[in-house]
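Appendix C. Worked example: Peptide/nickel transport system ATP-binding protein
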Amino acid sequence: MTSIPDAKAPADEVVLEAIGLTKHFPVRRRLRDLFSNRHDAVHAVDDVNLTLRRGQVVALVGESGSGKSTVARLLAQLYPRTGGDIRLHGASTRVKAGAAFRRYCARVQMIFQDPFASLNPVHTIRYHLTRSLKVHGNAGSTDAELEQALHTLLERVALTPPERYLDKFPHELSGGQRQRVAIARALGAEPEALLADEPVSMLDVSIRLGILNLLRDLKERLNLAILYITHDIASARYFADQTMVMYAGRMVEGGDSETVTQSPAHPYTRLLIESAPDPDRLTGVSDAASPKDNGEPPSLIRPPSGCRFHPRCPSAMPRCSTDLPVPLQIGDSPGHWAACWLYDTEEVAK
Ligand SMILES: Nc1ncnc2c1ncn2[C@@H]1O[C@H](COP(=O)(O)OP(=O)(O)O)[C@@H](O)[C@H]1O
Ligand SMILES: [Mg+2]
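Step 2, the predicted output written as structure tokens:
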């Protein structure tokens, strides 16, 4: 592990990278497979590249089952990877348990979708936050220092005055307040990166914006690198600097959020945007996670050959079912790419 950089680190410094990240889950074999010697696996994540920088939010967008949570869990080192690399400040890291895992967690924290499930109902907010501070050595050396640290955490997530919340149990708080506690607990580790897996999907529409604004404020004040996972591409535009679109375990498009959401290139991204009911959906979100075409995401045990989207794609060409598309630069907006043969200029020139 590399040493922790100082707080004056440049804003665009790379914190965490996925390079060719791949995860295949073995499928329990049926009896007949034992004889055919087949080794099936769910191809949940294939060859994913992702870069998280300080002071930036990257949105990872895709419909349910596309592999988003698996990417987050791999980055959090909760699963071993099948292939590829995870680099923390440029150093390849693979940790399983014990002290190395705790050191990694101190720098890369996860926030889950369901704040009720992630807080233990028998313990108070004070208990949850104290534990986080102590595990990561941020509790100070006296009771007064601990109390001060607890207050600071609650103030950071705008649960004020802190004394009103410290001795409450999770069930005494609203969903939004619980998610704020879960975020405060993550901050207790003083992390550099937050992996937020659908952090607002289970909350009432009316409070989603408040939580996203809090995360944005933390990004700016604490110079955090944030991965924001969502099936809601409209919120990515609002909240994220960069947007990456994932389909059936593969990245299909990426670039700055404004470009990807306003000028989407990949037919799948277009479908996602068309199926979003209202561009200002943060105030009127429906939870529709799937585009309204008649297609369905493919089996990840035997994913389609070539481009995984080709069976659903309105623009599919013959080569799309045979050749795996490579990322291709789109137009002249820097950093905008799509893995789609429509943008193969050699092909277009023919
Ligand atoms: N622990 C697991 N074992 C087997 N398959 C899994 C496991 N976790 C996820 N999967 C499968 O991997 C695919 C991607 O899942 P997931 O990463 O949860 O997608 P998303 O978060 O985008 O909805 C799905 O087909 C899912 O069924
Ligand atoms: Mg998920």
